[in-house]
Inverse folding.
């Protein structure tokens, strides 16, 4: 199976407090970039679908990772190549001159060129939380889609049985390939992904795999191609305009109360919540 | 970050950080107080690709060199907050290199591979109750008897010695002096090999340290590493890399104590402003930062020279002393900035202060380092 995984780098969410706003513009200087966690789960899922989990050295398919960004976003792609992806593509853009729609339309052209059996993406990026690319791409391609996958079972690499967690249970969808699937957190549980190449009894370690040092070093030699955005879509103008940014208000200092009686009184008279 | 670091080192750092944040940090205090971390951790570190860093792939290692190992270990200290755990997990860093360098293919399969997968624990046994740094005078004897050596004597201050499955042990196979020393791998369970009590230490609590004794202990000749009576040179080679490791640990501990101090100085208020509002605090931190920068620079330089294959005996001694002094100074200042809290066990800097005391002693004392420097500088 050939799988295309689009991924995005995001400012380290653990350091979100370092984000500054200056004259209505977001200032990201000094922030460390990380791959969007849900996209990392998508790469992990793609690897699990294209290998025998008990003998991971021989590949049983191909995983192509693609990102949209400037030259230094190649670090994110190299990291994924170290984790096990076979090939990478960088679509040359700035970090903030694109929106989900531009990305989806460019990906459509890339998919038509690469002809993957499956596009696997994270359910959303943790910076903008838009959650649009996967769905829009499926629409533009006219492919079936399954979103927020918590489990995937490959049926002979012809169709996927996708588990979507919803309130009160799991919906199972069967999608014929080619298809677009977006993944949720639980997809990286030990037995969430079942493929024809791995014994059903195999349990993966929880979470995203660690890249071995020799794989990190070998990743330098894996192919990484650069593509111009204009070669993929004639309309590269973002539809979403960000007008202004504002930081959440700083938290005010709390008040100490001497006993429960005072607490209840204040909740009633001042906070007016009881 | 060391000057030698590349994108590969950065990726390795991320892995080490992710592992240590999730698998070590939540348990750091508990393991330190319990004076032990779970044995399973060795396997977990191996599966995360961090145990075999700097060891050849054909022996189950992860490739790379000492620069990668230093980076992985520093990040585990910074993100894991338990020096004892990291040095315990890393005791193979001194036990395996002689086997990798001088062992037979059969010895490498038997001893190196299972350690790098986390199945076996290894330790290095040099120091004896009768004398530490004076390796040429060691008294544990190994007398050849057919296919075996009969070992008598004892070793002390052996890191990971309580749980070790085997100990790369320095023994006397020949006459007095450094020409009579050999390295012998002695396995747990060998008759006559007993592990004494777990030693109570100032710092490094999470790692176990033992006294070992050998009484008419019969060790197969097949466990001799390298040629008989050439062990002294192997031990000296090993000391050079061990001292680079120790220097890098000092840099890591100092860095962590420094970061903790910055956080504390911003949060803690006195006389109506944060501690950071006082020039005296800022200048303390500035001195700490400067010393760390110097120790890091020298440790980085020696690492590059070591990887290039240069003889670093003298520079290793200098780097260890500089890094040790930095670590002692920075941890002391960190405790001072923390005031009364810095003296309390619930604060990390209190532990780092105790951990720091090991370094002017372990791996060759500060005084022995100066003797090495005196000799290599040719003071006469």
């Amino acid at each position: 199976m050939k799988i295309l995984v689009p991924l995005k780098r995001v400012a380290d969410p653990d350091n979100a407090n370092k984000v500054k706003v200056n004259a209505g513009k977001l200032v990201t200087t000094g922030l460390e970039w990380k791959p969007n966690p849900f996209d990392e789960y998508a790469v992990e899922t793609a690897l699990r679908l294209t290998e025998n989990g008990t003998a991971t050295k021989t590949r049983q398919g191909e995983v192509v990772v693609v990102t949209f960004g400037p030259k230094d976003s190649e670090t994110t792609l190299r990291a994924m190549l170290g984790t096990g992806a076979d090939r990478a593509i960088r679509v040359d853009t700035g970090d903030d001159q694109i929106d989900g729609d531009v990305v989806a339309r460019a990906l459509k052209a890339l998919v038509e060129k690469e002809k993957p059996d499956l596009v696997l993406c994270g359910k959303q990026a943790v910076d903008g939380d838009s959650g649009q690319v996967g769905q829009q791409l499926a629409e533009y391609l006219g492919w079936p889609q399954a979103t927020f996958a918590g489990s995937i079972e490959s049926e002979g690499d012809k169709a996927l049985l996708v588990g979507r967690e919803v309130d009160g249970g799991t919906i199972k969808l069967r999608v014929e390939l080619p298809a677009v699937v977006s993944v949720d957190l639980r997809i990286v549980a030990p037995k969430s992904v079942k493929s024809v190449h791995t014994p059903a009894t195999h349990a993966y370690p929880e979470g995203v795999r660690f890249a071995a040092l020799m794989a990190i070093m070998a990743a330098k030699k894996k192919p990484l191609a650069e593509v111009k955005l204009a070669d993929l879509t004639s309309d590269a103008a973002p539809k979403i305009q960000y007008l202004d940014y504002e930081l959440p208000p700083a938290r005010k200092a709390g008040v100490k109360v001497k006993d429960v009686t005072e607490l209840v009184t204040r909740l009633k008279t001042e906070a007016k919540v009881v | 970050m060391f000057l030698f670091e590349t994108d590969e080192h950065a990726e390795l750092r991320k892995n080490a950080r992710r592992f240590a944040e999730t698998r070590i940090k939540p348990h750091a205090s508990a393991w330190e107080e319990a004076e032990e971390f779970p044995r399973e951790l060795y396997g977990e570190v191996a599966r995360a690709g961090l145990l075999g860093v700097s060891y050849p792939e054909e022996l189950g290692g992860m490739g790379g060199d000492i620069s990668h190992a230093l980076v992985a270990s520093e990040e585990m200290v910074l993100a894991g907050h338990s020096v004892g755990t990291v040095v315990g997990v890393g005791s193979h860093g001194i036990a395996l290199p002689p086997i990798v360098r001088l062992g037979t293919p059969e010895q490498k399969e038997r001893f190196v591979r299972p350690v790098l997968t986390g199945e076996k624990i290894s330790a290095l046994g040099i120091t004896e109750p009768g004398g530490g740094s004076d390796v040429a005078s060691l008294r544990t004897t190994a007398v050849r008897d057919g296919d075996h050596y009969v070992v008598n004597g004892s070793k002390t201050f052996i890191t990971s010695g309580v749980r070790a499955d085997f100990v790369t042990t320095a023994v006397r196979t020949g006459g007095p002096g450094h020409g009579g020393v050999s390295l012998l791998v002695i396995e747990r369970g060998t008759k006559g090999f007993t592990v004494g009590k777990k030693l109570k230490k100032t710092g490094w609590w999470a790692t176990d340290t033992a006294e070992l004794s050998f009484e008419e202990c019969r060790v197969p000749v097949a466990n001799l590493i390298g040629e008989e009576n050439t062990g002294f040179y192997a031990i000296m080679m090993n000391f050079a890399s061990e001292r680079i490791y120790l220097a890098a640990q000092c840099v890591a501990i100092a860095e962590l104590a420094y970061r903790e101090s910055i956080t504390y100085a911003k949060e803690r208020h006195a006389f109506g402003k944060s501690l950071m509002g006082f020039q005296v605090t800022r200048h303390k931190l500035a001195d700490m930062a400067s010393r760390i920068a110097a120790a890091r620079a020298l440790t980085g330089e020696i690492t590059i020279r070591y990887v290039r294959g240069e003889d670093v005996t003298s520079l290793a001694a200098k780097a260890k002393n500089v890094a040790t002094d930095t670590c002692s100074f920075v941890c002391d200042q960190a405790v001072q900035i923390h005031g009364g809290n810095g003296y309390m066990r619930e604060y990390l800097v209190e532990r780092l202060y105790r951990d720091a005391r090991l370094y002017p002693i372990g791996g060759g004392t500060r005084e022995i380092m100066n003797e090495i420097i005196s000799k290599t500088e040719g003071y006469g």
Summary: The interface with chain B takes residues 75, 78-79, 82, 205, 210-214, 216-217, 220 of chain A (CB under 8 Å). The helical segments of chain A are 37-49, 74-83, 100-114, 133-141, 213-218, 260-269. The domain at 2-247 of chain A is CATH 3.40.50.620 (Rossmann fold). The first helix of chain A runs from residue 37 to 49.
